[in-house]
Amino acid sequence: MMCQIVILYYSRHGATQSVARQIARGVESIPQCEALLRTVDELEGESSAQDPVICLEELKHCDGLALGSPTWFGNMAAPLKHFWDKTTPLWLSGDLIDKPACVFTSSSSLHGGQETTLHTMMQPLLHHGMMILGIPYSEPKLHSTQSGGTPYGASTISSLGGKLSDDEIVLAQQLGKRLANAALKMKER
Fold this sequence. Notes:
alpha/beta, Rossmann fold, six-stranded parallel sheet, 40% helix, globular, Flavoprotein-like_sf
């Protein structure tokens, strides 16, 4: 019984993509779990994405979802919002109800709007009936991080040269593990 977790993100300069890759590592560290790294189309111009663009069928059939975006004025990036605006068929059929989900982000500074961006990404997931997971304070790195990571989801500060801190790596991987374990439990029901 394989459990398929979609790691869906938009990343313009690579910081959000770096977090996505660490969440995928966490997912795949759990036996019987597979991470599918996916992105969304650009609204203008050519995409420099290294991962395939998501299709609604992949989202429909996933067992869990990690959703990530850079912080744009305290909100998710427009290409990601545009994608969610096209998911009405999944909403009407209830295909995402009771599936576990989490969110992650990157910003250019510590006070760049990470938590508000994480909240904006939760809104469409809640409307779809998904179950939102965060990072519990039982995770020690959440108490000591000097860069990214919140109880609402994994994060990074992209102004640190695009390289994730050790704390950010641990928190992203722990979030991926938590998501995979929750998806496995739901699938066994």
